Amino acid sequence: MKKKLLYFCILSITSLVVAQERKLPIDTTVTTQHSVTVNGTSFSYTATTGTQPVWDKMGKPIAALHYTYYTRNNVKNKEERPLLFSFNGGPGSGSVWMHLAYTGPRILKIDDEGYPVQPYGVKENPYSVLDVTDIVFINPANTGYSRTIPETGEEVDRDVFFGINADVKYLAEWMNTFVTRNNRWRSPKYIIGESYGGTRVMGLSLALQNQQWMYLNGVIMVSPADYKVIRVGGPVSSALNLPYYTAAAWHHKALPAELQSKDLLEILPESEEYTINTLIPAIAKGGFISDSERNAVAKKMAFYSGLKEKDILDQNLDVPTAFFWKNLMKERGGYTVGRLDSRYRGIDKKLIGMRPDYNSEITSWLHSFTPAINYYLQEELKFKTDIKYNMFGPVRPWNNENDNTRDNLRQAMAQNPYLNVLVQSGYYDGATTYFNAKYTMWQVDPSGRMKDRFEFKGYRSGHMMYLRREDLQKANEDLRAFILRTMIKGESAKY
Questions:
Q1: Residue 215: which pLDDT band, with cuts at 50, 70 and 90?
Q2: Where are the alpha helices (DSSP H) in 275-390?
Q3: Disulfide-capable partner of 361 in 228, 245, 273, 338 (CB 3.0 to 4.6 Å)?
Q4: Which tens digit of pLDDT belongs to each residue from 241-256?
C-alpha cells in the first residue's frame, strides 16, 4: 500500500510539472538593488527587468518585449538625468552584447583582449556610463526573452514586426509607453544601436519625432550596418573595404615592411585616400579599364591589403571580404581571420577556398556570452523563467524594402537642432567596416550643413570594440563625453 501511495505521489508531481505552460508573463517587473564603482566613484542603482506589451490597434497584446532598466539612485534632479535606449542588431539579435560587455554596470568575465575564460560569469564594469545616464536595454520581438503572441503560427502578423519599417514603427510606440510609465518625458533622450541597430536607430530618430513627438539629443551608431552600401555591390561598396583590409593585414603583420613599420593610424589615411580618389573610379571602369591601369591598381591593392596581386587581378579588382578572411593568412600559418573581428583566427578543413568554414569570432563570443546572460538575468536580477534566451531569434524572412533610414536621420536632424550623432567603429571589423561607417556618416547630410554635429571614433578592435579592455574604457569615455556635451541646458532649439 505504501509503495502504491509513493508511486501516486511521484506521478502527481510529474504531472504538475508537465502541465505548466512555458510562457513569459506579458506585463511584469522584478526589481533588485545593487552598487557599482565607476571611475573611482561608488554609487547604488536599481535594476528593473521585466516585460512590457506591444499592442495592436484594438489594444490587444501581440508581443511581450523583455527589457532591463538601470537607474542611478539618489539623483536629485531627475528631469536633468539622461535616458539611453540601447539596441543590438542582427536583425534578430538580443540586447545581450552591449548590455553585458559595454555600457551596463556588469560585464561578462573575459580576458583583456575579449577571449573566453572559465569559470563563466559577470563582474563589475568600472567604465559603465551609468554614472551619467540611466539605461534601458531592449530585446525586440523574438530576441532574448521577448516573444510574439502567439510565438508561431498563422495568427502572427509578421508584417508588424519583421522588417526595417515595421521594426521602427512598433518599437517607437513601445518606447513611448515606456517613457510614460517611467515618468521620463522631461529627460534628455539618446538611442544607441549596434550593427543592424545602426539602421534601426537612424529610422527611430525620425519615427520618434514624427509619430511619437519625442525629440532626441543624440543618436549613437556602433559599428553600423548601412544596407545602402553593404548589400548593393558595385564599385563603391567593393572599394570601401580596402582600408579595413589594410587594418586587418597590419594587425597580422602581413603588410610590406614600408607600411608595417608605421603605426596603424599613420597608414589608414593613405589607404582611405587611395580608395576614394583612385580605387572607386578604377573599379567603375569595369572591363574598359586599360591593362596598364588595371595592373597598377592591383599592385597597389596588394600593397595595402597583404593579398597577392594575381588573386586581385583574377577577381577583376573586386575582392570579396570572404576571400580576404580565407586567404590573408593562408601562407602565414594557414589560419582564417574573423569576420566581425579579424584579430580572431580560425582553422579550416582545407587551406584552399573562397570563404572560411565558420566565423571564428562569433563562436568565441557565444562561448562566453551565453552562460553569462543566462546566469545574470536568472540569478542576479532574479528574473526566473523557463523561456530560452534567444541570442539570435527567429525573425526571418526580414523585409528590407523601402529603406529610407539614412534620410530619416537627416530629416530628424534638420527638424531638431539639438540632435547630434556619434559613430563608433573598430578598425578590424570586416562585416560593417569602419570606412563604411565613415561613408554612411558623410552621406547622411549631402549638403554638409550639419557636419559639425557628427563625430567619428575608431578603436583598435573589431565589431564589438568594447571587448578589448583598453577600448572598453576609451569607448565609454567617448560616449560619456558625447552625452555630457549634448545635454543642452538652457539653450534654445533653433538655428
A1: very high
A2: 280-284, 291-305, 309-314, 321-327, 360-375
A3: 338
A4: 999 999 999 999 999 9
The grid coordinates listed for 350 are 582545407
187 phi/psi in degrees, rounded to 5? -75, 145
C-alpha to C-alpha distance for 344 and 347, rounded to whole angstroms = 11
Q: What is the mean pLDDT of residues 16-43?
A: 85
Number of Cβ within 10 Å of residue 374's Cβ equals 15
**What DSSP designation does 461 have?**
S
Q: How far apart are CA 311 and CA 327, in angstroms?
A: 10
- Cell, residue 78: 531627475
pLDDT tens-digit readout, 398-423: 999 999 999 999 999 999 999 999 99
C-alpha cell at 465: 570594440
Place of cell 557565444: 366
Q: The C-alpha cell of 177 is what?
A: 509607453
Answer whether 402's CB lies under 8 Å from 165's CB. Answer: yes
pLDDT in tens, 83-115: 999 999 999 999 999 999 999 999 999 999 988
β-bridge partners, 424: 222, 457
By the 10 Å C-beta count (0-12 exposed, 13-18 middle, 19+ buried), 376 is classed as buried
Among the residue ranges 2-6, 30-34, 475-479, the one predicted with the least confidence is: 2-6
Identify the three-state secondary structure at position 217. coil
- Residue 380 carries which DSSP code? I
∠ at Cα 246 (245, 251), nearest 5°? Answer: 100
pTM: 0.94
Give 4 or 389, the one with higher predicted confidence.
Answer: 389
Q: How many CA atoms lie within 13 A of 169 on its CB side?
A: 11
171 CA to centre of own chain: 16
Q: What is the mean pLDDT of residues 288-302?
A: 98
Helix (H, G, I), strand (E, B) or coil at 92: coil
* CA distances to 325, 328, 357, 375 from 345, in Å: 9, 11, 12, 28
Is-contact 259 251, C-beta < 8 A? no
Comparing CA positions, the residue from 393, 425, 421, 389 lying closest to residue 405 is 421
Has residue 10 got a pLDDT over 60? no
**Beta-strand runs (E) in 431-492:** 454-459
